[in-house]
Amino acid sequence: MRRGIVFFLPLLALAQSGEVVEGVIKRVKENYVFPEVAQRMEQRLRERLQNKEYDGLHGEALASALTGHLQEVSQDKHLRVFYSAEPRPARPNPGPPSPGEKERYRQTGALRNFGFHKVERLEGNVGLLDLDGFSDTEFGGATAAAAMNFLANSSALIIDLRHNGGGDPAMVALLSTYLFDAPVVHLNDLYWRSDNSTHQWWTLPYVPGQRFGKEKDVYVLTSPRTFSAAEEFTYNLKNLKRAIIVGETTGGGAHPGGGYPIDGHFGMFVPTGRAINPISKTNWEGKGVAPDIALPAAEALKTAHLDALKKLLGKAKDPRLAKEIQQAVDGLK
């Protein structure tokens, strides 16, 4: 009996790992934004499968190995395989969420205040928006409007994206709109493999409340953790010369996509599109967005605040205002 169990379990594990690998290959072939790269990934995974490199790998170990092997070929940090010990509900393909799923998304987002971590007025009337993620505008739009209206009277603005892993391009467009005056501004394009289409993203013709305006300085703080939609926001503003980027080069992920199931426990995120900036005609994939002022991310907030204050001091005509700004500069130094 014991020999039977010892013999049976490795065979079961082998069958499961092979099925997972085949499922990953299928999803990549059908959906990855670059079909020729998908072909190379398939070839490499099949070679590893034939060499029995996945024998004995289960759960997180198998997901981690597959993620590493896919990224080794594609160099795409968005492309990942996940494992869940709890069975995942069956869902064939990405699509509109059900009412129940939407409510769960809303509740989860509300617990994080839809990514709006902090809104603050710093010394010298410099505004600070500390943003952890770009939430779905359907749920986070009202919070975004409230935050941007609070900051509208600031003399300069710092947007902290050092811990922002990305999110919804619609929120990128909404927040960007507050930083420009009309007419609308072309921000970014997203190409999708599925139907060979390109979707343009522009600032909006209307936003609730008061715009920050295009004449006042904007700073964006970045780190290697700044990723995906947060990089789009940064890259858009940099190319439009609307913001000064301060900190470290961002993570380098410009390929949006969606989640796909493999089986009841494994799933993966497959990039199905790519960003195309209307000015540079390219994107930040693999290289990230380089800062205008390069320094350790931990020093970015103080540096941006000081730079903003010095510029405001040079423009100040009221002696009382100049004194207040100078005191803020001295305090930071």
Protein model, in words:
Strand 2 (116-122) and strand 3 (126-131) form a beta hairpin. The protein has a 6-stranded mixed sheet with strand order 2-3-4-7-8-12, sandwiched between helices. It has a 3-stranded antiparallel sheet with strand order 1-10-9. 39% of the residues are buried. Helix 1 (2-31) runs antiparallel to helix 2. It is α/β, with parallel strands linked by helices and 333 residues long. The protein starts with a helix and ends with a helix. It has helices spanning 2-31, 35-50, 59-74, 99-111, 137-151, 169-177, 229-239, 300-315, 319-332; strands at 80-83, 116-122, 126-131, 156-160, 186-192, 197-202, 218-222, 244-247, 257-261, 266-271, 273-276, 293-294. The chain is elongated and about 75 Å long.
Main attributes of the structure:
single chain, 333 residues, alpha/beta, six-stranded mixed beta sheet, three-stranded antiparallel beta sheet, elongated, disordered N terminus
Strand content: 15-25%
> What sequence of helices (H) and strands (E) makes up the elements?
HHHEHEEHEHEEEHEEEEEHH
- How helical, in percent, are the residues? 40-55%
Termini separation comes to 75 Å
Note the main sheet.
6 strands, mixed
Please, what is the average pLDDT? 92
Going across the biggest sheet, name each strand in turn.
2-3-4-7-8-12
Q: Any idea what the shape is? A: elongated
Unreliable spans: 1-15
| Number of helices in the DSSP assignment | 9
Q: What's the count of strands?
A: 12
Report the radius of gyration as a whole number of Å.
23 Å
Which structural class is indicated by helix and strand composition?
A: alpha/beta
In terms of quaternary structure, the protein is single chain
